[in-house]
């Protein structure tokens, strides 16, 4: 089952709902405080904090209308930003804005403030209170807090409509996924060559059609150890599965009770919480959009490519073949196969390469990205990195490169060849 933090991000209504419940409880608390406590301690409460019921009704009515207006404006701002993200960056970028903690909490604060003032206005009746009340002051303080939140939210929106901020967030998401897998690798593991399940095999199929969003690898390993068996994960995170498609192979002498939904989540869309390929794809799409004929923003693409190179360098330390997790006694418990490193590199660059055939600045930036990757990668990845460089050069018609462009790109290709230990290729001179 997905951790609570993942569910809070996906179900954006949960946080506003929690604020709404808190606002209802707070309004009841202030009502009973006015009803039973204010009259008893009225001599100790400064008169500036107390209002008559009629005045309180007027003030709370104004505050409720103001909070409704502010909440409506905030929702409209969210819709405008989502539209801009879709048109300017990527159709998959809006989820990063709408699922951010700031957006969820701001919406919750405004909804909660509106509910508190509306309920306080409902409770404010002259036949209930024969003395002055504190609820009006509480409503004013909440509105002040909402105004401060609104000012911060304007700054937040202004910052997030910048492509650099989005790129930083997408990069941070990818780094977080890489860190999760590196933490998993710190557990005792061996290569797939040592995978030797000897028990009878049982196949577990998908319970519905959709994308695999989450797999509890640690939980599956613990389950296999508990049943003295082994589990082989057939479908990867991010794969689309249909109902009944094999997802797991269970190896055990006894019947292994595996509640599918407790360990594997299938949804209608891919998510970047565990899906490293999807996290990289979202960054790549922003670069592709920057190189499209309608925008022609190669500098943005260059900035993104350098960040991609750093991410690919970090990913090079992951085992992208079959990963076998073992228990403390050295028994094989879990096999999970990641996407190969060559496929990851290819899927990162092939669309950008296609959309920027005649832009030498973007191609040189892709070589810069590979240089960063090679500098961070272990030697066993050098052949794969150089192979991708040769593939990228195939997209360029060397004979059409101008002299300075050819020399500029040649220096970068030579640098990458030196790092990876390969013989450089000579770009053609113009006729």
From TrEMBL:
Query: This protein is called what?
Result: DUF2254 domain-containing protein
Does this UniProt record's set of keywords contain Translocase?
A: no
Keyword Transcription regulation assigned to the entry: answer is no
Q: Which residues cross the membrane?
A: 12-38, 59-85, 105-124, 133-154
The uppermost taxa in this organism's lineage are:
Bacteria, Bacillati, Bacillota, Bacilli, Bacillales
Q: Which UniProt keywords apply?
A: Membrane, Transmembrane, Transmembrane helix
Q: Which organism is it from?
A: Planococcus liqunii
């Amino acid at each position: 089952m997905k951790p609570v933090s993942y569910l809070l991000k996906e179900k954006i209504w949960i946080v506003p709902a929690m604020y709404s419940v808190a606002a209802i409880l707070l309004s009841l608390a202030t009502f009973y405080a006015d009803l039973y406590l204010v009259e008893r301690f009225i001599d100790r409460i400064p008169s500036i904090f107390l209002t008559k019921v009629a005045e309180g009704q007027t003030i709370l009515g104004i505050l409720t209308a103001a909070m409704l207006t502010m909440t409506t404006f905030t929702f409209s701002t969210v819709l405008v930003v989502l539209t801009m993200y879709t048109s300017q960056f990527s159709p998959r970028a809006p989820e990063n804005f709408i699922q951010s903690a700031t957006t969820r909490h701001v919406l919750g604060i405004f909804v909660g403030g509106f509910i508190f003032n509306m309920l306080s206005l409902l409770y404010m009746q002259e036949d209930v209170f024969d003395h002055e009340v504190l609820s009006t002051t509480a409503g004013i303080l909440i509105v002040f807090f909402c105004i401060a939140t609104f000012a911060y939210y304007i700054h937040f929106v202004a910052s997030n409509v910048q492509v650099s901020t989005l790129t930083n967030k997408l990069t941070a998401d990818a780094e977080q996924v890489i860190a999760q897998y590196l933490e998993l690798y710190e557990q005792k593991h061996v290569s797939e060559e040592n995978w030797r399940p000897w028990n009878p095999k049982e196949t577990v199929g998908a319970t519905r059609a959709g994308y695999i969003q989450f797999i509890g690898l640690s939980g599956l390993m613990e389950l296999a150890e508990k049943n003295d068996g082994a589990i082989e994960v057939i479908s990867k995170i991010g794969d689309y599965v249909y109902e009944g498609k094999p997802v797991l192979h269970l190896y055990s002498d006894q019947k292994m009770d595996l509640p599918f939904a407790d360990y594997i989540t299938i949804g209608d869309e891919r998510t970047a919480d565990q899906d490293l390929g999807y996290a990289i794809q979202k960054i790549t799409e922003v670069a592709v959009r920057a190189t499209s004929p309608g925008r022609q923003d190669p500098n943005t693409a260059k900035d993104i490519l350098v960040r991609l190179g750093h991410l690919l360098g970090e990913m090079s330390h992951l085992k992208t073949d079959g990963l076998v997790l073992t228990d403390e006694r050295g028994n094989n418990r879990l096999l999970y196969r990641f996407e190969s490193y060559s496929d990851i590199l290819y899927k990162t660059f092939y669309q950008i390469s296609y959309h920027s055939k005649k832009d030498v600045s973007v191609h040189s930036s892709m070589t810069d990205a590979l240089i960063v990757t090679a500098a961070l990668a272990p030697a066993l990845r050098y052949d794969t990195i150089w192979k991708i460089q040769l593939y990228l050069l195939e997209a360029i018609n060397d004979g059409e490169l101008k002299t300075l462009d050819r020399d500029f790109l040649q220096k970068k290709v030579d640098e990458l060849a030196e790092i990876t230990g390969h013989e450089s290729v000579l770009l053609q001179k113009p006729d």
